[in-house]
Amino acid sequence: MKTSRWLPLAAFFALAVLLAAGVWMSRKPDRDALPSPLIGKPAPAFALSVLHEPQRTVTLADLKGQPFLLNVWGSWCVECRVEHPVLTRFAESRRVRVIGYNWKDEPADALRWLEQFGNPFWLVLADVDGRSAIDWGIYGAPETFLVDRNGVVQWKHVGPLSDEIIAKELMPALQKSEGSR
Amino acid sequence: MRLLLALLLCIASCSVFAQANQQADATPLQFRDAAEETRFHALASELRCVMCQNQSLADSNALIALQLRREVLELMRDGRSDGEIKDYLVQRYGEFVLYQPKVEGRTWLLWLGPALLLLAGAGVVVAIVRKRKPQALPADDGQEW
Q1: Measured between CB atoms, which of B18, B68, B93 is closest to A78?
Q2: What is the CATH number of domain B10-100?
Q3: Which residue in chain B is spatially nearest to A158 when comparing CA positions?
Q4: Domains of chain A
Q5: What's the whole-model pTM score?
Q6: With an 8 Å Cβ cutoff, are B92 and A77 in contact?
Q7: Closest among B82, B75, B18, B80 to B45, alpha carbons compared
Q8: ipTM, 2 decimals?
Q9: Helix/strand/coil (H, E, C) string of A96-156?
Q10: Are A140 and A34 spatial neighbours (Cβ–Cβ below 8 Å)?
Q11: Residue A55: pLDDT above 90?
């Protein structure tokens, strides 16, 4: 019977295609990064104190009106040091406000870290106990969110930023969110 | 020794991307009664740790898991149901936190795939058996054994 001869071959090729698709779909180096369910949704409300002025509290409403980039970092975070020069270059371009989200850190350590490496941030929010970070779905540092002028999360990146990611992902997302006013 | 090994493995699997080591409050969770403890462990074993992605929330030593365990216990004490707590985490961290994804348009293949494969296998068996049928039984040669 002819069928019985090509059937195993067909099954083999079907399996090969399935496995190749699996490899192809996991080609991205950051495949472990979780896609944020917040994209396209309003950013979670928060009220956090400012690292440099602990008595001052900033809420999401205070930041609306202009887009901002929220960068999650901590003085304990090694990858944040890798990212720091890239973030500084981007912040110096003054394209958008870059706001630091100091996550689970000792304020004194955070201030010393900024003193040592330079402070690229327009404002640094301090989330010492990490409670608000759960609302943002933050699970590691560095993480970076782009929030548009209406307070809607437009983009998220898990892991350190690079010039390439800024050029290929962040800038288009920023332009798109500004275009759809 | 085993504890050390487990700790090293966890560090190795998590070190790609830094985790909070500040504010580490490692005191074990205090349960009010056995029922609460049982419910908590059942719930935590159904939730996936977002940091060490192959561990459940109950097993992981990552600090975010520690914090999320506290959060889950707090939500339980607020009187939220298991479903509400899962929704709470899914809204923030995505469907990934559930070991058993919901049955919906995107996941039907995941849920029904094994059944479909079983059906396909059954189809193949039926086809083979049908094909054999025309073969006549060997004629009885009448020999006595």
Answers
A1: B18
A2: 1.10.8.640
A3: B17
A4: 35-179 (3.40.30.10)
A5: 0.77
A6: no
A7: B82
A8: 0.79
A9: CEEEEEEECCCHHHHHHHHHHHCCCCCEEEEECCCHHHHHHCCCCCCEEEEECCCCEEEEE
A10: no
A11: yes
